[in-house]
Design goal:
The complex is a heterodimer of chains A (about 110) and B (about 425). Chain A is mostly helical and about 110 residues long. Chain A has four helices and no strands. The longest helix of chain A has 15 residues. Chain A starts with about 25 loop residues before the first helix and ends in an 18-residue tail after the last helix. In chain A, about 20% of the residues are buried. Classes of the chains: A mainly alpha (about 110), B mainly beta (about 425).
Amino acid sequence: LTPLFNVVLIPIHKITKETSFSPFFLPKDIFSPKTITNNMTSNSNLSNMRRLVEQLKLEASVERIKVSQAAAELQQYCLQNAGKDALLVGVPTGSNPFREPRSCAIV
Amino acid sequence: MCDQTFMAATFGPCDSCSKPSPLMNIYIKNEATNYCSLCVEMMACQGLQKGETLESLKRESETLKKKLEEERNKLNDVELHQVAEKVEVLSALSIKTRRVLKGHGNKVLCMDWCKDKRRMVSSSQDGKVIVWDAFTLNKEHGVPLPCTWVLACAYAPLRSLCLIMNGYLGLDNKCSVIPLSLDKNENLAAKKKSVAMHTNYVSGCSFTNSDMQLLTSSGDGTCALWDVESGQLLQSFHGHTADVLSLDLAPSETGNTFVSGGCDMKANVWDMRSGQNIQSFESHESDINCVKYYPSGDAFASASDDATCRFYDLRADREVAVYQKDSIIFGASTCDFSLSGRLLFAGYNDYTINVWDVLKGTRATILFGHENRVSRVRVSPDGTALGSASWDSTLRVSWSFSTGSNYIFRFIKLLFWVNSRLVLEFTVAF
């Protein structure tokens, strides 16, 4: 089971009906291949630069908390809800998980 | 607008618009810059602020970026897995594929669960959208569509279906809403209503908390909020510099933010009402294929072509965990959290689904079975099962049986077997 090449860029003149059935291409590869990007180097455009500076100023002013506090709260949420998580705990063997009443009867 | 004739000493890309053309060497505040004549005109009309030039703006943005990094690093006092060291290690998970849904003729591109927690909808490249019952494997509806690139589908909270259809070569970049009903004879394809239109392919869609508004992300680099009834554009979100591949809404009822990830390797958090980009995270090394909020709404995870999944906390405003392994070299195309947020399911292009322990940063288990790329994984709304769609044209539903009751079950089976054997012995003896 060895997967083949992941993504291949195809030039526009080679796009035919068959490419839509080919195994490897996603719309992001076909419809806007990254080699044909005119405006991607927009950093040198003056108005874009001004917008970027404004955006960075906005992001710098965001209120932040310490990672230790954020991590502790994420962990607390996990542990609080771990009992209800059927993928973690499991449903009784042989039962239909979709008809399971949502009471915490799983021991 | 035609170019004035002037002595052009140089020819090349203009500093301002990057188009190659004859350049005028001009001095702005004693700095030499090369602009094409069009940009010189525009600049004269724009009225630069005092002392502002391209160079000074570039320098300002660099210093601001550095300052942002410093501010974020100041609060990075500990890593998530260090905080989680005291948490019990996960016992061996017994999640296995229990159902395989066959019926599509080509790659399944997308799937979603219905709010009744039992039905699933999937779309495939053979042009069909099928609604399944996940336990009985019944196909309830099949909607044939005129085009092949049905990229995504989502179930609205109140039983209508949303589909993204991109025509051949991106000519039909529409998002359509189909109201689903119980009457099987109804011609569903005729009732579809086109809601959203973008200038490039539409990559993701999601209903907001009601059935009334639809949020879409597109290859033209923008996201947009639409009113379903009138098809009107309510708000558009600009800020990505490349295709936006995925979006996810914040889970709370009152929340009005969403996160989007794209080919520019950035994940942006937006305010839906103002259209403002609130926070931006840039630590991936390749396209972000999927973003998903943590169940509490304070964090989100992203899956990317650089073979990693990363976990970002919104209040600490930084990346707090990276889920990667040297043995994983294929990109992740999708991810989803379990109900408690302890597990992160990520589907990869090497045909597997890796299940990560979110707190400890380690891999809990791998799910094998698909025979081609996994295009979508979704946990059911009440967290009981995991649905996965793949390019091998099947969908798989997996859930976990608890090992405790396994023994009781097996013991009862054993009793019955012993009983039947004893009966057999006695009858034979007679």
